[in-house]
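Model it.
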Amino acid sequence: MSKMKAQTLVDKVADIAKNHKTLYVMGCFGAPLTGGNVTRYCNNHNYNKAADRTRMIKAAANQSPPVYGFDCVNLIKGVLWGWCGDPSRTYGGAAYPTKALLAAGTCPDVGADGMIKLCKDVSTTGWAAMLPGEAVWCSGHIGVYIGNGLAVECSPRWENKVQITAVAGCGKKAGYNTRTWTKHGKLPWVDYTGAVAGGDAGEVSKPTQPTESAQGPAVGAVVTFTGSRHYVSSGSTNPKSCKPGEARVTAVAKGARHPYHLIAVKGGTVYGWVDAADIAVEASAAIAKGSTVKVKTGAKTYTGGGLASFVYANTYTVLELSGDRAVIGQGKAVTAAVNIKDLTLVG
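Modeled.
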């Protein structure tokens, strides 16, 4: 069976990252999130059954053009199995390999850790000498090196989709999130003839670095979207219509034309970058690690327990923040874990 050219793999994954709407969906190898696929991928894996993930899948459903679902290893498998972005086909053009194709040497259905074990010339060093099209790997996660110190990966981290990131072993890149991979190697279903070490990722526009800011909603905050337009990128000038409602902030591009990326969670259809003026933010959304806060009178601990009366009179520092769970304390001493909505920002 003929192998895919390394540059073809690079071009395809980069095109998906730059030109298609995508969402991290566990166990999905490029299916458009339309029709029966929506129910299928809300129920195919425990990860997707989690309330937040189900809401994200449903918020991305039945758009035009559609949002395509991928996870890290299924991005690679989907492309090798023929994904072409065809919204009329169940898996976007990809086809699960038959026994005959597997016998002929096509890519099998393996996980990220299984795929790196099948790669050739696997190494933990020599990052600058990588060939475009090589797999880059860390435990439980895999991506594709596209040259110029950049890789394409699909991850719920950062942008929650197929995205271009910097390879730490090649050095940080301004404007890109950086992933520390631990191994790289040649995919056995790819032909690296003619590939040049380091490579050229071609015209890759630099995204504005996502950041979290105490001056606005941070990544993970649930806000009220009041607008009617969203954009495919933070600098786009071509809006698409959507409905207002509650949404989760999944990325922040400080200083960009449309600085917040939202995914609807209740009552709306937003799935894209929006204007700051179209977001109504509660004070809790501006609370970040290190913020000085007070606990609202009558609030409970995060698990529903009672708090001593003196807790409501004092000020605290947010020591840890994970979703809506905030650990507060004074100095290095922990006082309690509470829901962020029960905190008031001081100063």
